[in-house]
Amino acid sequence: MTSASSPQTSTDTTATAPASQPPVTAPPAAEARPVAREHHGHTFTDDFDWLRDKESDEVIAHLQAENAHTDAVTADQEPLRQAIFGEIKAHTVETDLSVPSRRDGWWYFSRTEEGQQYTVQCRVKASDTGDRQADWTPPVIEPGVAVEGEQVILDGNAEAEGQPFFSLGGLAISRDARLLAYAVDHAGDERFTLRIRDLTTGEELADEIPNVSYGIAFDATGTRVFYTVPDDSWRPYRILAHTLGTSVEQDQLLFQEDDPGMWSGFGLSADRTELLISVGNSEVAETLAMDLPETAEAPLGELRMLVSRDLGLLHGVDPVTLDGQRHYVIVHNKDFTAEDEEHGPAPAPNNMVSLAARETVTDPRFWRTVVGHSETTKVDGAAVTATHLALEVRRETTPRTVVLPLTGLATEHQADPVEPDFGEELYSCELAGAPFESPFLRLAYSSWITPSQVLDFDVASGELHQRRQVEVPGHDPEQYLVERWWAPADSSQMAGAGGRPVAIPLTVIRRRDTEWDGTNPCVVYGYGSYEMSMDPALSVARLSLLDRGVVYVVAHVRGGGELGRGWYDDGKKLAKKNSFTDFVDATRFMAQSGWVDPDRIAAMGGSAGGLLMGGVLNLAPELYRACVAQVPFVDTLTSILDPDLPLSALEWEEWGNPIEDPEVYRYMQEYTPYENVRAVDYPAVAAVTSLHDTRVLYVEPAKWVQQLRRTVTSDQSRALADGGAPIVLKTEMDGGHGGASGRYRAWEDRAWDYAFLLTALGATELL
């Protein structure tokens, strides 16, 4: 821990005082059209619910008027946006490529070309000499230089031509490398169209399947394609097999999940002999399997239950063959070795790893322990190759990869796990690929200030081979410093395990030449939901903040997964408020650290992190000078009360079910941002959204902005650069949950967000 001394009292800054700006023109005011919502004896009147009709010309005109207002209010930030865009561009090698990955007899990789928005998917023939090390060592391919025999299998720029949006929902290659299956989205609503391309001729087959979800796979014969279909609420619930050359109406339904609170998906085993179907949510899961035929004439087999939802387990399953017998590696969250008649299996919230034979996999009493439960290390997942088991684990917030041989697994002869060693304290080492036949595991290594590396880990020798380090022109990691601080959770509604005080991990990033004088601007970022962790990675765009003297803080609040399952459980359902109070406590800790100016702190978060922003602003608006809320989930209660909205029923496992449970309703009503805006001064707010977002509907920030403007007492009449606190809504009219498509558009979006924050903080000039 890096200690912070007593706070500095000085608020002097080195920023130049902004020139006086003209008054902000009046923003669009939506008409109040009250609609009453009644649940559990409580009535809430929503004046702006009519804004949810995106087919209405009136609503579209309102959003366009908001965009015009935002453009006018932030017009003075355009030079800064251009500067930041230029910095991102200067730090990026625009003509670049990925490290080739081998699949069967080919090396697959992607290219990016200067001036092009999207990647180009390519491949080149592999060789088989009998030397496994040589045959699995990727070829050296140069950016912008075509290789003899190189084939373009899909050009994203060509696919996007003439379209307002472009996104891929999956790519799959048949075992004989002749066919490509791919799914495209041209609206941003995450409903894809599945197509098949003959790579030997470049022709598109007649097979076309609309309205599919993420994920595609060929069977071993290359004559069938597996895919998933979403229901009306965007929940993937049906898994089908399409036989090439037949009509979609003849596709075989393999599985259908009718529980609206369960999500379905599929994958192939590492050796591609089984289809695995997984069903679940954040609290329980189920896995089924199907043996795949080796010939096109043979019919698909029957689904077999592997791990039933009746066991109440969260788990993952990876098939593996040991000594000629089929087994399953299972990562799961209950310890059946400690089961008793009264209490059942012991909790193992950070997961343990077991091995089960095919004949007895359905009965956990016959599972054998590979890795026991740990209070300090969370097992996040597993992958198998022909010879080794790789485990993705998390210890002290850091994602790591450990490896052990299959020989002797779950016996007294099991070898000790091996972990690659790195020199940095705060880093991420994640499994990026485990080809079944390869002697290497592909690893992705990154840190907050070090450009990411692609590594191949030799499972036999333990040697690391660096295949690539991302080039970041003009970036010197030695100019920056990353530290782990711990902020006391003074406002917490519950103590940690064993009643111990809770400390919030903070990642604090700054330039080394930043002085401890209490004058520095600060941006605090957070997420805190779905057990998602904010892991170390270098952001080129973030350099534009750091190089303007910003102290950048990632607050790893509860609701995320950084400190194991307990950290997540303490920030969900009836403990959700902990996420908000953690962020506020982290901000106060920074304000008192002596490093930053308490009057120059901004907040930023997106999606569920946008909910975090809304909740934090209602709790402690006085702490922040500005806030950027990206696709913010700020009308939480209204959305979760409507099971017909996209993905809402699935969300009950995260927030609770306010339809059935009055306590959950009351608790959510107390924190949902839209319903708790207060008549006090708020900071400047930029709500950024997309018209076609299906995860967080645009109507939530649109309503929230209206409620903020008419309620808060802060000065919205002055420009941001003149010390005012305008509240603006920016809607991408052709984008989805991630905003506009294309890398240059993404850079523009990030430059817009950062220019808003930097202008508010008076930190527009490079140091």
| Secondary structure category | alpha+beta
In round numbers, the mean pLDDT is 92
Which descriptor suits the 3D outline?
globular
Instruction: Identify low-pLDDT runs.
Output: 1-18
Into which percentage range does the β-strand content fall? 25-35%
> Strand order, biggest sheet?
31-32-34-33-35-36-37-38
| Spatial extent as radius of gyration | 27 Å
N-to-C span:
28 Å
- Helix-residue proportion: 10-25%
Summarize the SSE layout with pairings.
Elements: E1 35-39, E2 42-46, H1 57-73, H2 78-90, E3 96-97, E4 101-103, E5 106-112, E6 120-125, H3 132-135, E7 151-155, H4 156-160, E8 167-173, E9 179-185, E10 192-198, E11 204-212, E12 216-218, E13 224-230, E14 236-243, E15 252-256, E16 263-268, E17 274-280, E18 285-291, E19 304-307, E20 315-322, E21 325-340, E22 344-357, E23 368-371, E24 377-384, E25 388-395, E26 398-405, E27 427-433, E28 440-447, E29 453-458, E30 464-469, E31 480-488, E32 503-511, E33 520-525, H5 543-546, E34 551-555, H6 565-569, H7 577-591, E35 596-606, H8 608-619, E36 626-630, H9 636-640, H10 652-655, H11 662-671, E37 684-690, H12 699-711, E38 727-732, H13 743-761
Parallel strand pairs: 33-34, 33-35, 35-36, 36-37, 37-38
Antiparallel strand pairs: 1-2, 3-5, 4-5, 5-6, 6-7, 8-9, 9-10, 10-11, 12-13, 13-14, 14-15, 16-17, 17-18, 18-19, 20-21, 21-22, 22-23, 24-25, 25-26, 27-28, 28-29, 29-30, 31-32, 32-34
